[in-house]
C-alpha cells in the first residue's frame, strides 16, 4: 500500500515587529510643539528636569530660559547661537528639532517691512561710513525711505556678528573677561548671545560700544556692484565685549 505523500507544512509567516515610535520621540515633539517655548516646556516635563538645570547646562541666566519658555523672548537665529546644540542633548531631542522650530517661528512672526533703526544708532553707523557714501545714503533715505539703508546696516551687522559668533567657542577669553568685570561668565555669554540676535531696529548705542566699534574700522558701498566693503580693526577683532 502506497503511502500518501506527506502534506507540505508551511510555516506561518513571521510578523515583523517594529519598535514603538519611541525610536523617534523627537519627531512627534517637533510636530506637536509649534513654538520653542512649548517644545522646551514639554521636553523638560518629559525628562523630569527644571528650567534652572537647563540654564546651568547651556550656561545662561535662568531668566533667559524662562523668557524663551514664556514667549517673552523670540528664539534666536539658529546660525547665530550655540544654544540649540547644547539644549538638544539635555532635552533628548533630534539634532535639528529646535533649530527647525525656531526658524519657522521666526518666519511666522517676521515683520512685513524692515523696521527703521533708532536715529541715534543710524547716525553712529553712518559716522563709521565713508563721508561721501554716508551723505548719499541719507539723501536716498530721505527720498525713498529707510529700507535700503536698513538693509546695508543689516549686512554690516552680519559681518560683525560673524566675528562675534566665534566668542561662543572661546570660553577662555570670556571667562578671563568676566573675572575682570562685575559680570559673571553666564552674564557675559548672555551679552554675546543677545548681540548675535540683534537687528538694525533693535541695535543700541551700548551694542555699538561693546561689539561693533571695537571691530569695524569703516565701511563703504560700491555703487557699481552694490557690494558692502567693511574694514575690520586688525587688533583683536574676535576679542570679548568691550567694557565701554
Write the layout of secondary structure elements.
Elements: H1 25-32, H2 36-47, H3 51-58, H4 62-70, H5 83-91, H6 97-109, H7 119-127, H8 131-144, H9 147-164, H10 171-179, H11 185-196, H12 205-212, E1 216-222, E2 227-232
Antiparallel strand pairs: 1-2
Helix pairs in contact: 1-6, 2-4, 3-4, 10-11
What's a quick, concise take on this entry?
The chain is mainly α and 244 residues long. The protein is 53% helix and 5% strand.
Describe the protein.
- The protein has twelve helices and two strands.
- The protein is mainly alpha-helical and about 240 residues long.
- Helix 2 (about 35-45) crosses helix 4 and helix 10 crosses helix 11 (about 185-195).
- Residues about 1-30 have low confidence and may be disordered.
What is the terminal separation in angstroms? 109 Å
Overall average pLDDT: 85
Order of helices and strands: HHHHHHHHHHHHEE
Number of E strands: 2
What is the share of helical residues? 40-55%
**What sort of overall outline do the alpha carbons produce when their principal axes are compared?**
globular
Beta strand %: 5-15%
Radius of gyration: 26 Å
Strand order of the largest sheet: 1-2
Low-confidence stretches: 1-30
Which terms would index this structure?
single chain; mainly alpha; two-stranded antiparallel ribbon; 5% strand; globular; disordered N terminus
Amino acid at each position: 500500500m502506497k503511502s500518501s505523500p506527506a502534506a507540505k507544512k508551511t510555516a506561518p509567516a513571521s510578523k515583523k515587529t517594529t519598535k514603538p515610535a519611541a525610536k523617534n520621540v523627537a519627531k512627534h515633539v517637533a510636530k506637536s510643539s509649534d513654538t520653542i517655548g512649548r517644545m522646551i516646556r514639554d521636553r523638560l516635563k518629559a525628562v523630569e528636569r527644571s528650567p534652572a538645570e537647563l540654564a546651568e547646562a547651556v550656561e545662561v541666566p535662568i531668566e533667559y530660559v524662562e523668557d524663551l519658555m514664556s514667549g517673552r523672548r523670540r528664539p534666536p537665529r539658529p546660525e547665530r547661537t550655540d544654544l540649540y546644540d547644547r539644549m538638544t542633548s539635555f532635552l533628548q531631542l533630534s539634532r535639528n528639532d529646535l533649530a527647525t522650530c525656531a526658524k519657522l517661528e521666526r518666519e511666522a512672526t517676521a515683520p512685513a517691512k524692515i523696521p527703521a533703526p533708532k536715529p541715534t544708532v543710524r547716525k553712529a553707523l553712518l559716522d563709521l561710513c565713508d563721508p561721501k557714501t554716508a551723505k548719499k545714503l541719507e539723501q536716498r533715505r530721505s527720498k525713498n525711505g529707510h529700507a535700503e539703508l536698513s538693509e546695508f546696516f543689516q549686512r554690516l551687522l552680519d559681518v560683525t556678528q560673524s566675528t562675534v559668533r566665534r566668542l561662543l567657542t572661546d570660553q577662555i577669553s570670556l571667562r578671563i573677561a568676566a573675572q575682570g568685570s562685575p559680570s559673571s561668565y553666564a552674564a557675559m555669554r548672555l551679552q554675546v548671545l543677545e548681540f548675535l540676535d540683534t537687528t538694525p531696529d533693535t541695535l543700541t548705542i551700548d551694542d555699538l560700544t561693546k561689539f561693533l566699534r571695537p571691530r569695524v574700522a569703516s565701511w563703504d558701498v560700491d555703487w557699481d556692484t552694490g557690494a558692502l566693503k567693511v574694514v575690520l580693526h586688525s587688533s583683536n577683532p574676535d576679542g570679548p565685549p568691550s567694557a565701554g
